[in-house]
Write a structure and sequence with these properties.
The structure holds 2 protein chains of 2 kinds. By secondary structure, chain A is of the alpha+beta class. Chain A is built from 30 helices and 19 strands. In chain A, the strands form 5 sheets. In chain A, strands 2-1-6-3-4-5 form a 6-stranded mixed sheet, with helices on both faces. A 6-stranded mixed sheet of chain A has the order 8-7-12-9-10-11. The two termini of chain A are 28 Å apart. Chain B has a single domain, classed as 2-Layer Sandwich (Alpha-Beta Plaits). In chain B, a hairpin with a 4-residue loop joins β2 and β3. The chains are: A alpha+beta, B alpha+beta.
Amino acid sequence: MTGDVYRGRVLDVDLSSGRTAEVQLTDAERRLHPGGLSLGARFLWTGQQAGVDPLGPENTLVFGVGGLVGTNLLTASRTEVSAKSPATGLFGTANSGYYWGLELKMAGYDGLVIRGRAQRPVYLWITGQGLEIRDAAGLWGLDAWQSLRLLRAELGDDQVQAALIGPAGENMVRFASIQNGPYDAWARTGLGAVMGSKRLKAVAVRGRGSLRPADPRGFLSLTRETTTKVKASPFYTSFARYGTMLAASPYGAFGALPGKNFQTGRLAGWEENCTRKMVPQLSKRGIACSACPIACAHWTLVGEDLALKDMEVTPVFCLGAGLEILDLRAVARLTAYCQKNGLDIVSAASTVAFATELYERGVLSSRDVGFEPAWGSEEKALALLDLITYRRGIGDVLAEGTRLASRQIPGAYGYAMEVKGLELPIADPRGRLSTWTFGYLTNTRGGDHLRTRNPVENLRYNENPVPYRTERFGFDEAMLTGLDMSARDKEAIFDPETRDVDIPRMAKWSEDLIALYNCLGICIRPPVLHTLGPELLSRLWAAATGMELTPGEMLACGERVWNLQKLFNLREGENIRESVFPERFYREPLNGEAEGKVLDREAVQDTLAEYCRARGWDPASGVPLPGKLAELGIGGE
Amino acid sequence: MGRVLAVDPTLCVGCSLCALTCSLFNQGEFSPGAAHVSVTRDDFAGLFTIAFKSTCRRCHQCAQVCPSGAIRSLPSTGEGATEHDG
């Protein structure tokens, strides 16, 4: 009995010709590629030529639903979308939960490959009966919230889920998001611009089918075991109450905020106005994605005319600290703007901060911008976002993202806070160089915080025993015992005496695990990441699909995907010299001379070289060595 | 004394674990549409509706997995004015 939780069945549509087909992965392929991100890696690595224009018809956009989505496994809700990124020119990819993936699975599909470019605006309508290409003339130009309401009315079903773009995607802003329902998004790496370039407004889905696990009773029992373990994690209770807002206080205390375009890590008023203390005032309750008991997002009442699923820490760091807007209601209004217009909040906030600093330093004038940008001004931030969304005036340059804009605006070089073309989020590595912030350099999609993470990160400490190489553990032994990691990996990653964490090796291990999560559709929230590792996942995968993989083979699925993304990037011309932080981090002391923290360039590069060794990559070039590729079965496709 | 299901949709977070677990427990497959309990979303209002079909077998699995207290399994009081008894 194999069940049909993961069929390996993918819809393939060419918008240029209108032709649609179904692709069925072989059993051998399903074993190597367990859904989600692995589908994007497979179709982009083997099916797309190097050097294509990311905004041209030859760029392929892949929606890969996580292999365990549609089940009751906690947090199994997530779908990965991948294409060559118009922001970075590298492997673009983004992950989002909510209910879109569940609907596609219930319609009978695990993924969707979109090629070509439609002659006029269209949307896709997918059900168990297949796929229809429909006219979207009535939706083009509307924001994502308006479009979703109209789509549901037109389709006569208010439970339809849709992936859709706003005006920013239509106008091919290089950091446009694909919105997932009203509030969630496949935000990073500009995939909304790829949809816009294809004249594809939305992908609406509704599924009424079913998924049968290979071993229904066994799977039910394992999901109960998983839930019990996750709820027993020391991270669970506070996370379920406060969500990601838990991180706001510690980073404020570390002086590691991305304040005013990473000019300052400390902001007066942060603790009082922008931390978890605000959650009870603004949030009435949580809102969950499919199968998630944590419900980390907050239903936030901003004012009489606005309530939204909000108060996640990323917008609070990026819009709040980044623009010095220390008012969570204002942050929520700016968040709503990005949700409606389809902008990646991290890159949008960073680009507004970039423009504001350029004005502050006299690189841009009020005549260049049309007004005077200012820190702490919701009104000026909204005005800049609007210029970007509609590519008006200076907004047309800013819509290219900070890296390209910094090359076009004379005097702007050095003020773009990005790595490999992707704007940096959240925390300043000068204030805390951890596995997490080191990941800005190693992340295959560029400067991003969501794919490299120490699952036992201890935010009570910020003095690392060996700078840039180890991170203090500081928990009791039970925290390590509860971590689902092989004894061999624990031995390699944790110091035998102190338990301190080896940053390069933890980076590699966590990237492989998170890549596996992004294949299976599981969420990286701390209580989950701490609990659900290769051993438990291999048992769940077997009960769901009948495919028996050892824990090591499960983790290798993640490692394979990580390497395929790296190979894609190298094929597109990525060079290890780009794996550097913005120059500011090496030259300008964070928080002034008193704290005086700058990064030591050589020490950072040494850690990066050690990471490459841990990965089986050449430390000088960052290129995967033949032995590693052979071990992962890459190259024989 | 038996048990009844107490339902308060204002506490619902929308996760649909009730429907997913119901269909797995009773039908051996995941099928939110065929489950005895369903959650419908008004995501612009942040509100959810919970409905039970007459086919519900009173297994109370939905209450066991509900994370928010929107569906609870309680000892029957015999009054049942605000309770759903399946």
